[in-house]
Each structure stands twice: as C-alpha cells, then as structure tokens.
Amino acid sequence: MIKQEQFTWHSEQLDKDMTVRVYGKKGVPMLAFPMANCMSDDWEKHGMVDNLKEYLEDGRVQLFTVDSVDTESWSCENGIDSWRTARQESYYQYIIEEVLPFIKKKNRSKKLPIVTGTNLGANEAAIVFLRRPDLFQAVMAFSGLYDVRFFFDDYMDSNLYDNAPERFLENMAPDHPYIKMYNDKKMVFCVGQGAQEFDGVRTLRDLERIFIKKSINAWCDYWGFDVNHDWSWWSKQMIYFLPYVLGDKQSVH
Length: 253
Hints:
The protein is an alpha/beta fold.
C-alpha cells in the first residue's frame, strides 16, 4: 500500500483553505500540479499515483500534489483581468511561501524538489521553476500551453508578465545568473503531436527557440503523431523521463 496523507490549512496568500496530498514515506520530493481546474486528488484519480507505485513504495520519490485556483485565474474568462492575474500571483506566492516550506518540513531527504505537471499544471511547473531555479532540482512539464494570450488575449500587466515564461525569458539578460542555475539543473518539456496537441507543440517550439537563444540546455521532446493529450501518454512520459531526472540514466536527447 502506498502511504497517503492529506493536509489542509487556510492559506495566508490566498485567504482560502487549500489541500496538499502526500504519497510515500520518503525519497526525493516531487511537487505535482494538477491539470486545468482540478485539485490535489487529480493525480490519484487519473492513475498517476499508481503509475509511480514502484518509486513511492521503494522510497525513491515522495509525491506532493496540490490544489489549483485556475477557475479564479487562468480559466476565469468573465473575471476582471487585473484580479485574475493578481490571483495567479498569489497562487505562485502560496506555492513558494507555504507549500515549499511544508515539503521541506515533511520530507527528510534534504533534497530540493522536482516540480512537474500536466496540461495547465505544466505551465505552473514551468513558472515556479523558471522564476526560482534555486528552489528546485528539476522540472518535468507535459503538454503545457506556454502562451498567456490563450488565457488573456492581448492583456498584460506586471503580475501576468511574471507568470509568463515566454515573456520574461525572452527579455532575460544573457549573463543573468539564473541561466547558469538552469543549466545546473535538469529541465524536461514534452508534448505529443496527436489530438489536442497542436497549440502545445507550437508554444513549446516558441519556448525552445528562446532556450536556444539564451543557451539554456532544456530537453524539449516532441512525441509522435499518435501521442494524444491525455493521462495515458503523460503516464508513459513520466516513467520515461523520471529515471533521467533522478540520475538513473543518461540523457538520450
């Protein structure tokens, strides 16, 4: 049996109750974001926790899954844009100021977390990693949509800019200290080329162009035209890339 615990507290950053689920007893901590509009049970409901059973039971990985506030930010199409972007920034601060200290206290490995996510959760994983590479050891992002115009059209403010890696990376100075930090970590961005992945492919290619321009060594992988936007493929991608991220095998890209 995979040990599972559930913790809920009232977030100071968001002023609402938020839940974190913990799977496994020990190992490298892995922070996982749910797909769009979903909550901390998303990875369990869609079989990803069972998919990681060997890693969790062997104590190689300890998984922490979080709630989203997407319906108040990215997906809140009828909301005031400035409120939506402020809500996303508060969510980012919740992860950094509340969830990461919780992980550090709960996990005894003294290792920095891997951060990961699927769908819109991949965006969140990219955001926290690229904004604070000092706080993570690796990122695995599956089928993200790295273009804030899909959610906000042409609107932009400082909060949205800070949560748009395709914007702030484009303007990052070539000698920025974060670039060396990125290159000292492991970065995986993967997308299929099948159903519902067209925009994901396009936006990842745009992000990859920026990585190349800035000499950032991210592994951007484009799987086949039979690889669709769904959990069955994200599960395969997880098992394929996790050994590389953990250092169990060398990169083949």
